[in-house]
Amino acid sequence: MADKTWEISGEYMESCNCDYLCPCIFTNPQGEATHDNCVALMVYRIDRGRHGDVVLDGLKFALVIRSGRIMSDGGWVFGCVVDAKANDAQRRALADIASGQAGGPPQMIRDNLVSDFRGVEFRDIGFTAEGLKRATEIPGIFAFEIEGVASRNRSGEPFYIDNTAHPANRRLALARSRKTEVQGFGLNLSLAGKGNNGHFAPFAWGA
C-alpha cells in the first residue's frame, strides 16, 4: 500500500441548527432536516498531523456547511477556516486538506455534495473541551457551545450513536447546544437556549 500524502488525527466538535437529535445522523442522511435547511459547523483540533514534511500538530481548522432540507440531495454551501496561527507552509497544507484539494473526506464532500464553495479564510480558532462541555469561537465566522447528553448508566459518559456515515467518526457523542451563531461566508444564524443538535468525537483522516 502506498504511503499517505497526509495524515491528521485529534478531536472534533459540531453544532447544527436541527432540533436534537438531528435526523440526518440516523437516516444516512436521507431524512428531512427539522428546518428549511441545515447549517452545520464543525471544528477539528489536530493533535498529530503532517502533510508531506509539514508538521500540523496543534493546529485547527473548521468547516461551514449549509444544505437544503435533505442533506444527501447536495447543493451545499461550503466554506473553510484555517488556523491563523499556522505559518505559510502549514496554511497551504491545511487549506488544501480542508477545502478538499488534497483528497480524503473533504474531497468527498466537495465532489459529491457542494455546489457553492465560498473559499478559505484564516482566523484564530478557539477549542475548549472540559468534561462533557465543548465550545469554540472563530471571530467573524461562528461560535457555539455544546454539552454532551449525559447517560445515567455510566458516570461522566454521554449517549453515543454508532455506525454512522458521518465524515468525522462512525461513533459520535450526542450533545445539545447552548448557543449557535454564524456570521461568516454570507450566512446568518443566531440560536440561544434552543437545545439544538451537537456532536463530538475523535477523528483520524488521511489520503
UniProtKB/TrEMBL annotation:
Pfam families for this protein: DUF1326 (PF07040)
InterPro entries: DUF1326 (IPR009758)
Name listed for the protein in its UniProt record: DUF1326 domain-containing protein
Organism annotation: Reyranella soli
Organism lineage: Bacteria, Pseudomonadati, Pseudomonadota, Alphaproteobacteria, Hyphomicrobiales
